[in-house]
Design goal:
Two copies of one chain form a homodimer. The longest helix of chain A is centred in the middle third of the chain and has 27 residues. In chain A, helix 1 packs across helix 3 and helix 1 packs across helix 4. Chain A is of the alpha+beta class and 143 residues long. Chain A has a two-stranded antiparallel sheet with strand order 1-2. The first copy, chain A, has a two-stranded parallel ribbon with strand order 3-4. Chain A contains five helices and six strands, in the order H-H-H-E-E-H-E-H-E-E-E. At the A-B interface, helix 4 of A face helix 3 and helix 4 of B. The structure holds a DNA duplex (25 and 25 nucleotides).
Chain lengths: 143, 143
Amino acid sequence: MDLRALRCFVAVAEEGHFGRAAARLHLAQPPLSRRIRDLEADLGCRLFDRIPTGARLTPAGEVLLAEARDLLERAERARERVRGAGAGRVLVVGVAAGAGLDVGPAALAALRRSRPGLRVRLREAPVTDPSAGLRERRGGTWR
Amino acid sequence: MDLRALRCFVAVAEEGHFGRAAARLHLAQPPLSRRIRDLEADLGCRLFDRIPTGARLTPAGEVLLAEARDLLERAERARERVRGAGAGRVLVVGVAAGAGLDVGPAALAALRRSRPGLRVRLREAPVTDPSAGLRERRGGTWR
DNA sequence: AGACTTTACGTATTTCGTAAGGATC
DNA sequence: GATCCTTACGAAATACGTAAAGTCT
């Protein structure tokens, strides 16, 4: 059971229609249909009754709708809580005074990609002191 | 954020070691490392401090550990509730007449373990008709 | 016929495992 | 040197989109 599958399921349940749900998910209908089918196989019971005008929840589907909404909401809140707790670490980058803080955006992007969550701060520094006032690194930590 | 990623994260957090966590997940270390990396990128903050003996949770990681355990447990309970609501369904297994209903007990046990609540019924069937008398599927429903 | 979902199939993306690369003790 | 984790890269599995098929009103 996957959160993506649950998002698809909720969309179909709320729209009552595979086509509209697919559009809302920016997805084509066939992949959506397969996802629901796989979810049904995974759970071992059908979730929708396919009716001419679209799809209607089965009793099991009603149960899953409530559970799925709860799970998705909790997942989103968990994200925010973790992000809130993740503040605090800052990497100070010294930039030569003459460069005018024109550090390559590509370099910054690559750095953030390799160190997710890192907060980068720029600090101007004289060319004669590239350390920008930082101390030495000893024993694996900056002091 | 994906439940699979959370499972990987919990394994690493509990083992404190990427290698052991990978073994527990039946996965090689590099894919596990990438999953954690992607999860950190997704959440926007680091979850582990990589130390010589393995990995240690950051404060953000501690928060996520609690959230992830909660989410995974709720997801599992949601599964069972939905399956419970989906009861009333019976899987009929056709067995070749000559086999004397001596279907592998291990196979049945594995089936019931993977699909709790599923009702399995055995039906003897001639080898010439492996469908065991079941009808065709038309229009999305068995008749 | 009209509206809807499902199956078929070729393609693109993602994910995995093995091997090489750094880093720390 | 030993023990970790990470990056690189080729291969397998997965997911997607278009097109054709099937079902029901």
